[in-house]
Design a protein that fits this description.
mainly alpha; Rossmann fold; five-stranded parallel sheet; three-stranded antiparallel sheet; 59% helix
Length: 812
């Protein structure tokens, strides 16, 4: 039994058609059969309820209220007889109808607003974002009464917020039978002051059919009437171009069935905190989406005929929808021009914004950016301009503070303001970036500042990176001799580097920025153009970043040459020689080291001479030219001991130990390595400590003491792993595998080699292929991890024989 009689003689409700109940069912898109199925009753039962002939029994009412998405009190109103059987609607006024039936349509014309502007016909991409919006709408069915589901679509200027919102709104408009409301809140743009909430509500009331004479005069009463009219409706409300949360809050309907879409350039996180809004931030298009948009606007055939030019246009437009649309319009206006001509025009960074200008301010990239920039406070606007001077790709808070000559707390606040305005993006915690067009806009604005202000900011920026990188290098290599740096410019606060892991983490975070800073300094040119590469040497060498290592040192040599800076040139030639030697160019490396030694000798720099004699010792020893190698080793040891350079002395002793082990004098080799370890205990030289243990492992291996060899190799592996020296760790792992293999321990050998292969699979650098080949044969672990090669000349052979005898007579 699912109903009771409404006959007056039975004590029920007088019969009468329940029009409000019918309208509520239809508003939800339910047929009588649908409602009956939800309630598990016959359709005839629903028919009798709506005719007013019967009413649900008490236990059926909660299920009916849930199916109709109303409260118990509202269900009672819906079940009240709304009119006589003859269709007279005089009694069809809910007790809380603020306009005498207008809110529910009784006795008056029901207004269903359809305010959505036309959608963009060639909308492209955004599949993930469209799916997310639909997911939000689908999940709204589980919302409790009074919950407002909001999707705040943020994103930088020109990223396509409004286009996405309108495209999706038109797709789902049929799911909102009570209508769609839309307002441009004018938060950003040329169309006068931002709309007030009161102005928007008044427009909504008119759209909902409220006669002017029935609109309350008080703003609070107008807002209350707006919420009442939407109280039981399923309405889509699009609040476009909002400036902030305050502009939006009073426009949110208190309805379980309405959905609000808000677009804004600012992050409206307050809506998420106070109203449970879902925040959907838009990035620029993917490369494929950007190319697809160009093909849609320009023509698929024309883009297919010039795929490279099309791809370049997408890149130069930073994949920003507005910029792509303007570029496509220019291309369409000149159908006889090749797309490569437009790509060339956009390639010029200085004129790129001009190329993306249009007669309509709303279609001019520069103008649209200005609407966000003009909303910034003075200090945040200044920081945005200064960010245009940063070489990219991103910047941390400490560097931004030095750039602006400000403290970090205020700089962090300004960066947050820029992020809220979507003028920068926080791609990683505490790191901010601008896409290329915003960077071009910042540079464009910075041209209006005095030239000296820009030069001072650039000096501060380079000093920040140089002094921080210099400190990090000395933490990573405590025995390294510091450079003589000029004091940092006023306003610069270098970052504190506490320990080795902190130094390594800083270099990893700033690696690409430092490369860009080197290019910036070299272009000035400035001494920092060779000093910054010096600070990166140990970091680049430890991670097998050979391409960057060689490239930065070549920049250093070129910069020092242009400046006529002989000490800088001597340093840079030696470091470039180290880099190209590891990169497999021994002849060029030796030539560079000889030039460096000549300069250090001319300058009277004994420390530099000691380092270069050591490098030439390695060159000659690698070619088994031991007589010449011994001469360089003696000079290197004498020089570094005369100036107390224990770091260089450790390097020379370690290399000597390795070469003695190659000649079979392993007792001497072990003593030299022990001397190096003793000095390391005094000075702390972790990278050389790992090398020494590797050498001791090799010595033990050659003496067929495979257990001792494995122990030494494990020591080296542990040190290199902690330091992040990937290449050295791989070499030591291979040697460990060889030791286990020689001892007949196949399982342990395979484990070590698998670990080495695991590293190699992640290396995408020159030398990785060579290391893979070395896995197939025993590997020599030495100072540079390379086998010596014989010089084919007779003279060299004679020198080798004489040098070998002399080497084994050298005193311990």
């Amino acid at each position: 039994m699912a109903e009771t009689s409404a006959n007056p003689h039975d004590g029920g409700t007088p019969p009468g058609r329940r029009d409000r109940l019918v309208r509520r069912r239809k508003a939800l898109g339910l047929t009588q059969e649908d409602l009956a199925a939800l309630l598990k009753v016959d359709r005839s039962t629903v028919v009798r309820w709506e005719r007013g002939e019967t009413e649900p029994i008490p236990w059926q009412r909660p299920r009916l209220a849930k199916a109709l998405k109303v409260t118990a009190d509202r269900l009672t109103e819906l079940l009240d007889a709304a009119s006589s059987p003859r269709g007279d609607h005089a009694g069809d006024e809910p007790r809380n109808d603020p306009l005498g039936g207008l809110a529910s349509g009784g006795g008056r014309v029901t207004v269903v607003p359809r305010q959505l502007p036309a959608a963009i016909p060639d909308f492209t991409g955004r599949g993930a974002e469209l799916a997310r919006l639909t997911e939000i709408l689908d999940s709204a069915g589980d919302s409790t009464p009074g919950t407002v589901v909001i999707s705040a679509i943020g994103g930088t200027a020109g990223v396509g917020k409004t286009a996405l919102a309108l495209h999706w709104a038109h797709r789902v408009a049929g799911r909102f039978p009570d209508g769609q409301l839309h307002v441009n809140l004018r938060g950003f743009g040329p169309a006068g002051a931002p709309a007030t909430p009161e102005e928007a509500i008044l427009n909504f009331l008119v759209a909902l059919g409220v006669p002017p004479d029935l609109v309350p005069s008080a703003p609070d009463a107008q807002a209350g009437l707006y919420r009442s009219l939407l109280g039981d409706k399923r309405m889509l409300v699009v609040l476009d171009n909002a400036r902030d949360e305050q502009q939006v809050r009073s426009l949110l309907p208190a309805s379980a069935d309405s959905l609000v879409i808000v677009t804004s350039r600012n992050q409206l996180s307050g809506l998420a905190a106070a109203h449970g809004a879902r925040l959907l931030s838009l990035d620029v298009l993917s490369h494929d989406e950007a190319v697809a948009l160009l093909a849609t606007r320009i023509g698929a055939d024309r883009c297919a005929a010039e795929p490279e030019a099309t791809a370049e246009i997408a890149i130069e437009c930073a994949r920003l929808p507005l910029a792509l649309a303007v570029a496509a319009a220019h291309a369409s206006e000149r159908p006889r021009f090749p797309l490569s001509a437009l790509a060339t025009e956009l390639r010029n960074a200085a004129g790129r914004l001009d190329a993306l200008d249009a007669a309509d301010p709303a279609a001019s990239v520069r103008t649209v950016f200005s609407w966000s920039y003009d909303q910034l406070a003075t200090d945040a606007a200044r920081l945005f301009r200064l960010l245009g001077l940063h070489p990219g790709p991103d910047i941390g808070v400490p560097a931004a503070a030095s750039l602006a000559a400000a403290d970090q707390p205020s700089t962090r606040r300004h960066l947050h303001a820029l992020a809220r305005a979507h003028l920068v993006t926080e791609d990683a915690p505490g790191r901010y970036a601008l896409h290329d067009l915003l960077r071009a806009y910042a540079v464009d604005l910075a041209r209006g500042d005095p030239d000296e202000a820009g030069r001072a900011a650039t000096d501060r920026l380079l000093d920040h990176y140089l002094h921080t990188a210099h400190a990090a290098t000395l933490v990573m290599e405590p025995t390294e001799v510091p450079l003589h740096l000029d004091p940092p410019a006023p306003g610069v606060t270098p970052e504190p580097i506490a320990d080795y892991q902190g130094a390594l983490a800083w270099f990893q975070a700033e690696h690409r920025v430092l490369l860009a800073a080197i290019t910036l300094a070299a272009g000035i040119p400035d001494r920092r153009g060779w000093q910054l590469p010096w600070t990166m040497t140990h970091f680049l060498a430890r991670g097998a970043n050979l391409l960057d290592w060689v490239a930065t040192q070549q920049v250093a040599v070129d910069t020092a040459t242009r400046l006529g800076d002989l000490p800088g040139l001597a340093q840079s030639l030696g470091l470039l020689g180290n880099a190209v030697g590891v990169d497999g160019e021994p002849a060029r490396a030796r030539e560079l080291h000889e030039r460096s030694l000549a300069l250090f000798t001319r300058l009277g720099d004994r420390r530099g001479q000691a380092k270069l004699h050591h490098m030439l010792f390695i060159h000659d020893g690698r070619r088994l030219r031991f007589f010449s190698a011994l001469r360089h080793s003696r000079q290197a040891l004498s020089l570094c001991r005369s100036i107390g350079d224990k770091g260089s002395e450790i390097e020379v002793l370690t290399t000597l130990g390795w070469f003695h082990s190659l000649t079979g004098n392993r007792g001497r080799a072990r003593k030299l390595c022990s001397q190096a370890l003793s000095l390391i205990e005094e000075t702390s030289f972790p990278s050389m400590e790992g090398t020494v243990w590797g050498n001791l492992g090799y010595i033990a291996h050659k003496q067929r003491d495979f257990g001792e060899a494995a122990r030494c190799y494990r020591q080296a592996i542990s040190i290199f792993h902690d330091l992040g020296y990937v290449g050295a760790e791989v070499t030591a792992l291979c040697a460990l595998g060889d030791a286990h293999h020689a001892a007949g321990e196949a399982a342990l050998a395979n484990e070590a080699r698998r670990r080495a292969l695991g590293y190699l699979d992640g290396i995408d650098q020159p030398g990785a292929a060579e290391l893979r080949v070395k896995l197939a044969r025993p590997i020599l672990v030495g100072t540079l991890g390379q086998r010596p090669t014989r010089d084919p000349s007779d003279a060299a052979a004679a020198e080798t024989a004489a040098g070998l005898v002399q080497l084994n007579r050298e005193p311990s």
